[in-house]
Amino acid sequence: MHYLNLDEVRDIQIDHNSDCNLRCPQCARTYKGGTIPELPITELTVEDYHKIIEPVVKHLERINFCGNYGEVGVSKTFMPALEYIVNHKDFNGRIIINTNGSVRNADWWTQLAKILGNNPNNKVAFSIDGLEDTNHKYRVNAKWKLIMNNAKAFIDAGGNARWDYLVFGHNEHQVDEAKNIAQSIGFNNIRFKLTSRFIDELNYQENKDINDSKKVTTRKSKYVLELAKENKFRPKSLEQGKNIIDKYGSWEKYFDSTVIKCKAKPIGKLFVDFHSRVWPCNWVASGMYHFGKNKQQSELHKILDYYGWDFNSLRHNSFDKILTHEYFKESFCSSWKGKQSDAIPRLTACARTCGEEYEFSSVYGKNKIDINLKETMNV
């Protein structure tokens, strides 16, 4: 089964760069409070976007700048690339940008609002996990006052903004106050996200269900990061994880046998990383630079070793050539019915994120709570 034809591509998610000003402890780029040593610090160029956008622009409905590793605000090439997309005569889609907001100054965010302003469906999602006394506990190095000033500058300049809030034990008591602050500043929406990142490679290897807490190391301190206590803010995957161990005996057996129902293919989604490599989705690509003996990383390297490390690179191949390559034309979708030990493996990322008995993602299913603040204000 072919993953996607060129004319079926409707949604592209882009990891524009690999650098970031923060060191969030459960982020793919963070190791022992710092940056993974093997992670190359690089970014896409405007020339890369010619190859990304041109072949699919006429039927492209959405571009989402939401990276596995990078923060677009620190990139020198992001704004020129964004202007290229927005000003493209054939682009009629919408743009979503995810950011921690703790970078640049008010002028930069005002400019961003003006660039995006031509389309009311364009949006910036600010990831702010708490208030002044708590946001930095997960968003390590974040500066609260700078974030608030930047968000207000963006909104005051006409920008459409959403507040994304990961709920933890240390910030669950501030949910209502965050909603009030978001309304007062002018955010249109707030999204409370219930994270499943308390389960990791060690859980998979040792056949454990999700933990309630994790020891965290930053450059300045060590502490315990905890899940929320209130039931409505606890991820729905908690009970699912327990059921998987009871039913299958191990995560390995679950990953090898669960029915995979791809979330990305039906919406015509692809992912482009900061090397301009094309992947089926962000979850597949997320393990590329994971530290240590990580199965997701080894699976991706196995694919690249098999086909060549440039087979899915837009710097070496056309978009059409990549999507008609054996991997996208047949092997990737066929792998959903295979095993993790196959030459082209059934990916852990596919089984974990799109397996029918476990909801890992915090943006699908019941692991998110979306509130329209404009409607709430009118009640």
Care to describe what's here?
- The protein contains 15 helices and 13 strands.
- By secondary structure, the protein is of the alpha/beta class.
- It has a single domain (6-235, 265-294, 361-378), classed as TIM Barrel (Alpha-Beta Barrel).
- The strands form 3 sheets. Strands 12-11-1-4-5-6-7-8-13 form a 9-stranded mixed sheet. Strands 2-3 form a two-stranded antiparallel sheet. A two-stranded antiparallel sheet has the order 9-10.
- β11 and β12 form a beta hairpin.
- α3 runs parallel beside α5 (144-156).
- The protein is globular, with a radius of gyration of 20 Å.
- The N and C termini lie far apart (49 Å).
- 41% of the residues are buried.
- The mean pLDDT is 92.
Concise summary:
The protein has 379 residues and is an alpha/beta fold. The protein has helices spanning 46-53, 78-86, 106-116, 135-138, 144-156, 175-185, 201-206, 237-248, 251-257, 282-285, 295-307, 319-323, 326-334, 348-354, 373-378; strands at 11-14, 30-31, 34-35, 62-65, 94-99, 123-127, 161-166, 189-193, 213-217, 222-226, 269-272, 278-279, 368-372. Helix 3 packs parallel to helix 5 and helix 9 (251-257) packs across helix 14.
CATH class: Alpha Beta
Q: CATH superfamily name?
A: Aldolase class I
Helix/strand/pairing category: alpha/beta
Oligomer: single chain
Gyration radius (Cα, Å) is 20 Å
Mean pLDDT: 92
DSSP summary, beta strand count: 13
